[in-house]
Amino acid sequence: MDVPDQPYFLDDKNATLVFPVLLHYQQYSMTEVIAHFAEDHTFFQQFDVMFPPNAASPPWDKNQEYVNDGRLVVYAITRKQRLLKVGKKMTLRNLFEAAGEKKNNAGRDGLELTQGFLNVVVVLKGLVEENFVAAFKRSRDQ
């Protein structure tokens, strides 16, 4: 796995921050790393490469559902346990900004790096997404 020695670094050539991102596919209990995710890219630009239409599915995708054709939904969880849905045009920088916003006078929030990775969850739109959101809220509110 080609992961930088530090959690993030500055790409001097483009003057952008680059982060390692860990994708969680909870439906299949699988994870995948994007070692160099530039702050000015979207998750769906990454998915164009990872899950192109008419390409072979990853071996864990038994039903061949993970295709970047509008079915994939990305969520990030903030330090204060807010669930943020990542929009199709939202860059990684936009996600960090959204996570850092003050909500309900509760002070600043943000995203955490776990073992040097930014963690996000990728689910399928529909029932899989609904079940994930419901389970997250139940777990958070206990």
Give the class from helix and strand content and strand pairing. alpha+beta
Query: Approximately how much helix is present in the residues?
Result: 10-25%
CATH class reads Alpha Beta
Under CATH, the homologous superfamily reads Phosphatidylinositol 3-kinase Catalytic Subunit, Chain A, domain 1
Which CATH-level-2 architecture? Answer: Roll
For the termini, the CA-CA separation is 36 Å
**Shape label:** globular
| Main sheet record | 7 strands, mixed
Enter the CATH topology name.
Ubiquitin-like (UB roll)
- Strand tally is 7
Task: Please state roughly what percent of the residues sit in beta strands, choosing from under 5%, 5-15%, 15-25%, 25-35%, 35-45% or over 45%.
Answer: 25-35%
The number of helices is 3
What do the pLDDT scores average to? Answer: 86
State the low-pLDDT regions, or none: none
H/E order of the elements?
EEEHEEHEEH
Radius of gyration over alpha carbons? 15 Å
Tally of structural domains: 1
